[in-house]
């Protein structure tokens, strides 16, 4: 025989449990409605786009083996490494167009022809002299390491002239936009490679001072 007070207590606890469950369900449903209303009322924000800035491209011309200066307005990120990559991507995109003065496939494609660009300081022999003068012992010059995509190198036309023009135009474009870049070294898929497509030497480090521009500016 269950005592009367235990029976009453049981039904009171059961009623309290049902009441609490109902309240929690209502609160949960109310919060869910608030979330839905908030999502509907919050305006969709457009993705941030880097501001357009002027970039200088040194465009290769197969007609006379020259480099032509061309200024373009491009959306450029603030990071120097990403900025350099974006500029080189645009240069190689020009080479992939139908009327390119230096036809090279592999630009303007879903995957970038440039995997990465790293800008690194270059040390000079005069470290002690710079330190004695109160200057940063590390040179103000920079080395650009350009990591080309393997697909771009694999599809590049073979020939000493066309390969050299691609390499030199990259070097000149980097120096035109980053005057502190005095040396450029190339990798392919992060690895050392002997040549670009059988001729242009990629084992050496190129000096931007050796790149000559033989034609003037082009809009």
Short description:
About 40% of the residues lie in helices and about 20% in strands. With about 220 residues, it is α/β, with parallel strands linked by helices. A hairpin with a 4-residue loop joins β1 and β2 (about 65-75).
Task: Give the tally of β-strands.
Answer: 7
- Whole-angstrom Rg: 31 Å
What's the rounded overall pLDDT mean? 82
Number of domains: 2
Low-confidence stretches: 214-219
Strand-residue fraction? Answer: 15-25%
Query: From N to C, what is the helix and strand string?
Result: HEEHEHEHHEEE
Number of helices: 5
Task: Report how far the terminal alpha carbons are from each other.
Answer: 102 Å
Largest sheet: 4 strands, mixed
Structural features, described:
By secondary structure, the chain is an alpha/beta fold. It has 2 domains: 1-45; 52-218, no CATH class. 38% of the residues lie in helices and 21% in strands. It has helices at 4-41, 80-95, 127-132, 150-155, 160-177; strands at 52-61, 66-75, 114-121, 142-148, 181-188, 206-207, 217-218. The strands form 2 sheets. It has a 4-stranded mixed β-sheet with strand order 3-4-5-6. Strands 1-2-7 form a 3-stranded mixed β-sheet. Strand 1 (52-61) and strand 2 form a beta hairpin. Helix 2 packs antiparallel against helix 5. The radius of gyration is 31 Å and the shape is rod-shaped. Residues 214-219 have low confidence and may be disordered.
